[in-house]
Amino acid sequence: MGRPREPRPAKLFVSILFAKERVLEEGLRDLQSLFGEIDWISKRLPFDWTDYYAEEMGHPLYRHFLTFSRLVPMETLPDVKEMTNHLEERHALGDGKRQLNIDPGYVCFEHVVLATTKGYSHRPYLRKGIYADLTLIYRNRSFQPLEWTYPDYRNEETIELFNEIRRAYHERLKRSEGGLWSNR
């Protein structure tokens, strides 16, 4: 019989889309006040995978991925999504158009999971109207996309970013009190 046990905490990340640097800077400050120290941020990446956000947010759009020092329990993902949705609303224009698109998720040894408000066959419901989107799985020494993985997350550069985040997560767990396997 299997014995239930709590999983290790995960590495929280967000993807943030923006058109204006000033709004990005404000958003980064707000994210840090909510989730603690930002310990890694990607270079600025052009977001040209789709025009879906262009009318609402402007053009050209850019993206940063970023992570936080503090590890989080996986079950807090719906709370994190709720907070990032409020941040998007706070930074929206008077007509409701978003200036930031903030998509949170977590990285652990086995996979990358995004939080979404859209249910689908591969997105189990969590709570608070939030679903888990299994985006990448770790196999053969690298994250691998799945048939439903968004094109921008299946790109080699993005996968290597998540491999880098996973390595940092591994190092963080090794440094934590009790070592890597402390909650096993």
Keywords:
184 residues
Q: Structural class of the helices, strands and pairings?
A: alpha+beta
CATH fold description of the domain at 10-134: Alpha-Beta Plaits
User: Looking at this structure, what is the CATH superfamily of the domain at 10-134?
Assistant: ACT domain
In which range does the helix fraction lie? 25-40%
Largest sheet: 9 strands, antiparallel
Number of strands: 9
What is the CATH class of the domain at 10-134? Alpha Beta
Distance between the termini: 16 Å
Beta-strand percent range: 25-35%
What does this structure look like?
This protein is α+β, with helices and mostly antiparallel strands. It has a domain at 10-134: ACT domain (Alpha-Beta Plaits, 2-Layer Sandwich). 31% of the residues lie in helices and 31% in strands. The protein has helices spanning 21-35, 54-57, 77-90, 151-154, 156-175; strands spanning 10-18, 38-41, 45-46, 62-72, 100-107, 111-116, 125-127, 130-139, 142-145. Strands 1, 2, 3, 4, 5, 6, 7, 8 and 9 form a 9-stranded antiparallel beta sheet that branches.
